[in-house]
Design brief:
This protein is α/β, with parallel strands linked by helices. The protein is built from five helices and five strands; from the N terminus they run E-H-H-E-H-E-H-E-E-H. It has one domain: 3-Layer(aba) Sandwich (Rossmann fold). The protein has a five-stranded parallel β-sheet, sandwiched between helices. Helix 3 packs parallel to helix 4. The chain starts with a strand and ends with a helix.
Length: about 150
C-alpha cells in the first residue's frame, strides 16, 4: 500500500506562472503538481497535492496529515516568515517533512530571508525552482524506506 504524502502549498502559489515570472519562473502550480504526482506514483507514494491562501486551512491540513501518519512536503510561501500556528502544527508530524521554496530565500531581501518553519523541518530545499519538489519527493521516499528497514 502506498504511503500517504501531503504536498501542501501556501499563499499565492496558485498564481505561479503569472506572479513575478522573473523571480518564480513561468511553470504553473498545475505543472508542478503533474510532475510531482507522476514521480510519487513511481515511488509508491500516495500524493495528496493541495494549495491554500488561508493560514487556518494550512493548519487543518497539517493536522490531517498528522492523523493520517503522512509524510509532508510543504511550500509555506508567505506562511514561512512569521506564522507560528503553521510552525506549531508542523511540529506535530512524526514522519519526515521537507520545506520547499522555489527561490533561494537566503538571497532575498527582508522579510523573505528567514523561514520560521525551517527550525522544525527534516530538511529544506530552496532555490532550485520546480525541481525542488521532485528532490523533496525523493528525499521523503528514501527517508520512509530507511525508517521501514529500521522498523520505526
Amino acid at each position: 500500500m502506498p504511503h500517504p504524502l501531503f504536498v501542501l502549498n501556501g499563499s499565492n502559489l496558485n498564481m505561479l506562472g503569472k506572479r513575478e515570472p522573473e523571480l518564480y519562473g513561468t511553470t504553473t502550480l498545475a505543472e508542478i503538481q503533474q510532475r510531482t504526482e507522476a514521480l510519487c506514483a513511481e515511488l509508491n507514494l500516495a500524493c495528496d497535492f493541495r494549495q491554500t491562501n488561508h493560514e487556518g486551512v494550512m493548519v487543518d491540513w497539517i493536522q490531517e496529515a498528522f492523523t493520517r501518519d503522512a509524510a509532508v512536503i510543504v511550500n509555506p510561501a508567505g506562511f514561512s516568515f512569521g506564522c507560528v500556528p503553521v510552525l506549531d502544527a508542523l511540529k506535530l508530524l512524526s514522519k519526515p517533512w521537507i520545506e520547499v521554496h522555489l527561490t533561494n530565500i537566503h538571497q532575498r531581501p527582508l522579510p523573505y530571508t528567514h523561514s520560521l518553519v525551517s527550525q522544525a523541518a527534516t530538511g529544506v530545499i530552496c532555490g532550485l525552482g520546480p525541481t525542488g519538489y521532485l528532490l523533496a519527493v525523493r528525499a521523503v521516499a528514501e527517508s520512509l524506506s530507511t525508517q521501514r528497514r529500521a522498523g520505526t
